[in-house]
Design a protein that fits this description.
By secondary structure, the protein is α/β, with parallel strands linked by helices. It has one domain: YbaK protein, CATH 3.90.960. Helix content is 28%, strand content 27%. The strands form two sheets. A five-stranded mixed β-sheet has the order 4-2-3-5-8. It is globular and about 40 Å long. The chain starts with a helix and ends in a 7-residue tail after the last strand. The mean pLDDT is 91. This is YbaK/aminoacyl-tRNA synthetase-associated domain-containing protein. It comes from Neiella holothuriorum. InterPro entries: YbaK/aa-tRNA-synt-asso_dom_sf, YbaK/aa-tRNA-synth-assoc-dom.
Length: 166
């Protein structure tokens, strides 16, 4: 287990939050993760780390932002760019994911501003879910918990980030 995974489990135990810790085969996609958990893909929290750059930043200064949306949806980068007010936007590289969060691609948990120094934005559709499931720092371990409990642990900004109508 990674350091961030250990931090998440310690936080859940410290806050006396019920959760299910699922060990499974490596899952590199949202579809595989949902199948390994035996749960609908829609309750998965897909965490995407973006590197942003705006005109007010110097050419070499960049920031990061975490966008979390239902795992069965695709992100609309134009919506993200508009919401964040940035001119340039790209996914974080594998090296940046490792440097910032200590995780490989597909294993980033949705705890941006709580455990990482990264602002966090949740897609509004997640509000309709009773549960959230996410990879816990590795692609072989997941956490499933009540959405209401999850929301007590983070301070997200809500927005519309998925392709198509929300």
């Amino acid at each position: 287990m990674t350091a961030i995974g250990q931090q998440i489990l310690a936080l859940l135990q410290q806050q006396h939050i019920s959760y299910r810790h699922v060990h499974h085969q490596a899952a590199s996609t949202c579809e595989e993760s949902a199948a390994q958990r035996g749960l609908p893909m829609a309750i998965g929290g897909k965490s995407l780390l973006f590197r942003t750059r705006s005109s007010s930043n110097s050419p070499h200064q960049a920031n990061f932002a975490m966008i979390v949306l239902p795992a069965d949806k695709q992100v609309d980068s134009n919506k993200v760019r508009g919401f964040l007010g940035c001119q340039k936007l790209r996914f974080a590289t594998a090296d940046e994911l490792m440097e910032l969060a200590g995780v490989e691609k597909g294993a980033l948990p949705p705890f941006g501003n709580r455990l990482l120094a990264v602002p966090m934005y949740l897609d509004r559709q997640l509000q309709t879910n009773q549960q959230i499931a996410f990879n816990c720092g590795v692609t072989t371990e997941s956490v499933v918990m009540a959405m209401a409990d999850y929301l007590t642990l983070i301070e997200p900004v809500w927005g519309d980030f998925q392709r198509g109508p929300c």
